[in-house]
Amino acid sequence: MIRVNRLTKKFGLTVAVDGIDFEIPKGQVVGFLGPNGAGKTTTMRLLTGYLPPDEGEATLMGHDLRTDSLEIRRHLGYLPENNPLPDDIEITDFLHFVGRLRGLHDLEHRMTRVKSVLKACSLESVVGRKLGELSKGFRQRVGLAQAIIHDPDILILDEPTSGLDPNQVQEVRELIQSLKEEKTLLLSTHILHEVQHTCDRVIIINKGKIVADGSPSDLMGAQQDVTRLFVSMKGSQNEIESALRALPGVGRLNAQKSVDGVEDGFMIESESGRDLRESVFHLAVEKRWPILSLRQERLSLEEVFRALTQFDSAGAEAPPHV
Known about the structure:
Elements: E1 2-11, E2 14-24, E3 29-33, H1 40-47, E4 55-60, E5 63-64, H2 69-74, E6 76-79, H3 91-101, H4 107-120, H5 136-148, E7 154-158, H6 166-179, E8 184-188, H7 192-198, E9 201-206, E10 209-214, H8 216-222, E11 228-233, H9 237-245, E12 250-256, E13 265-270, H10 277-287, E14 291-297, H11 301-309
Parallel strand pairs: 3-8, 3-9, 6-7, 7-8
Antiparallel strand pairs: 1-2, 1-4, 4-5, 9-10, 11-13, 11-14, 12-13
């Protein structure tokens, strides 16, 4: 559905997108992540035909972006980053206007589509109001509605949950899941927790280059150079901390306080991926410290993201701190 080969975009001396390659098949939801200025919004604008590439190729639905831009847009729904909407038009009038632009000239069919997207995007309660009267969250949902009004094969959504409350975020998540069987979805977000619940796959871009590509679980597992172990024991916390630090193979050790004080403990990072569970168990037995909790922990997607996109003060990429 989407195929990108050596795609490149420059702005003067700045290389915003630097020869990237990826493919997204039908039915896949892909999270496109990166820090500010990494090139993700530029990539989305390239794929939607808003910007011409300087080098490389991109095809959507088998159509070349350079030669078949108008045909591509017939199959494409796009929610831009800032979601520009007019203020002085009523919601259904706006959706009918967008529908006509998208080729929905038959009034009966267009009315059916408008009713469908109003329901899908939970906009029925604000029908009759002008766009300028809506909150940011409702305006964001109008942006989603206009993106899907013509039932496109491909959806490119730049920060689709921006400005939404938790209930609305859940509704958008369910909408995305309902669309994925028949469509290809590429979405960017800064809410990494959402990616783990919504996306089948994650592409991380940094300084215009793709630095990671895989499922959320694969990316979290691939960064496990260090084994992390949480342990909570009953006893003097100072004595427990000193004994844990003295164990062979312990790298970093940080105290962790629970909200209710029931499971205060320590997060241990081992050296070279060493499994310390057995050593910690024998220490607890020797010291007669009852173990309240002992579990291996994986890096979160947020930690993986920071590890892959972190820079030092000189501007060079810092080594992953994992």
